[in-house]
Design brief:
Low-confidence stretches: none
Order of helices and strands: HEEHHEEH
Helix content: 55-70%
Family: Belongs to the peptidase A8 family.
Number of strands: 4
Pfam families: Peptidase_A8
Mean pLDDT: 92
GO biological process, one term: proteolysis
Keywords: Aspartyl protease, Cell membrane, Hydrolase, Lipoprotein, Membrane, Protease, Transmembrane, Transmembrane helix
Oligomer: single chain
EC number: 3.4.23.36
Distance between the termini: 14 Å
Number of domains: 1
Length: about 160
């Protein structure tokens, strides 16, 4: 029987969304903007940061653009979930991660016109842009979708 796994996927999406919003709340509530707390030496810190743009600070302050793109992307993801993800656990998981991540940052943009970022990572000598749980969900979702499309079955529902 083909399945959409609505309950587990909804639970995963809601958990990620709640965890994202809760961690952002904690950062805003207990840290000053710009404050940094080392977690793992110089390689991982909690750094309170606000971003009114996208990754790497692109499109600063373009809220209407972000609202439009997020609603469009969420609509496309729902469509792909319904049309292509039936009985495909990996694709369903990827889409749910993408939706939860997009919606988590969308909430920030609508409520505050900026996104709260706080995970600060140093990779070798590269200071990676500060990010959050929603950004992590988006990144993992993209990776899972690429694995599904390019390595597992290019979306083949019969695999």
């Amino acid at each position: 029987m083909k399945s959409y796994r609505i309950l587990p996927m909804a639970s995963l999406g809601l958990f990620i969304l709640a965890f994202d919003q809760y961690t952002k709340y904690l950062i805003v509530r207990f840290m000053e903007e710009g404050e940094s707390i080392p977690v793992f030496g110089e390689f991982l810190s909690l750094t309170s940061h606000r971003n009114s743009g996208a990754a790497w600070g692109l499109f600063q302050g373009q809220m209407f653009f972000f609202y439009f793109v997020t609603v469009l992307v969420l609509g496309i993801l729902v469509y792909v979930y319904i049309k292509e993800a039936k009985d495909n656990f990996l694709l369903q998981t990827a889409i749910v991660l993408l939706m939860a991540g997009a919606f988590g940052n969308f909430i920030d943009r609508v409520l505050f016109q900026e996104v709260v970022d706080f995970i600060d990572v140093l990779i070798i000598s590269y200071d990676f842009p500060i990010f959050n749980v929603a950004d992590s969900a988006l990144s993992i979702g993209v990776i899972l979708m690429l694995i599904e499309f390019f390595f597992i079955g290019k979306g083949d529902k019969n695999a």
